[in-house]
Write the structure tokens for this entry.
Amino acid sequence: MFTRTTFGKWIALTKESIKIFRNNGVPMFITELPDYFFDQKGSESNSLKAFNVLTNIRNKLSHPEFTLTNKIIEDFCSDTEKLLETILSELGFLMNYPFLYVDHISVRYRKWLNPSFHHTFSEVIGNSSEFNAYNKILS
């Protein structure tokens, strides 16, 4: 299924994952994610509709028989800017979650003792561009 990653494949995987969580009554870690893809009635959200229109534009542009003109390029730029604004503004909920990057893991394993793992994390929260680093020792 994932011989080549595309937005379409990731969106399909995410939509199906949301359905599995919902059908089993399991809350998702990112609780806002289902609403990003589906409205209250279970139909496609504005974000998902924007993704679909962007995919259609991309498909038109990649068709070998499609001829570009300055007018078409201007229209596509104008349309895609609005679509991207919809997609990104609706992703604002991601700023509520920390972005954690594991920079390094070292393992200490002494004879007759369980190993310990020293993690170096870098974390950013909200719209800050500053990563705060810290260390943790985990079993």
In short: The radius of gyration is 21 Å. The chain has two domains: 7-95, 99-138. Residues 7-95 form one domain. Residues 95 and 128 are 9 Å apart (CA to CA).
